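Hi everyone,

Forwarding the result from last night's run.
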Amino acid sequence: MVVLEDLTGIRERTNQQKRGKMEKRRSNAWAFYQLKEFIGYKANLASVPVVLHDPRYTSKMCHSCLHIGARSGKRFACQHCGYSGDADDNAAKNLETLGLNVMQPHGPWLMCPWTPMPQGS
């Protein structure tokens, strides 16, 4: 299984932030959709499922205890359990866990803290 962050609309979100001309050019040159399509194509050839997940909090949620922690640049620190490490590594572990969760035969067992509850629940 391949788990990717669903980066739909990222260009619009990042261009709202104040950044220099070169930084805007660099982010606008990224081919998010094309990369997703290439990965999807190759995964399909190998019969590997691709799961797209909401990118919110993936690098701020502790992969050990699932609490939202503090991210400072490239570092992540959980105030709840004390885990500390690279924020991108933490995000990758969260995406792995969330992707495996989606593939459970009886449905997801993990309720993401940022997932809104359906109305009327």
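The chain has two domains: 1-53, 56-108.

Cheers,
N.
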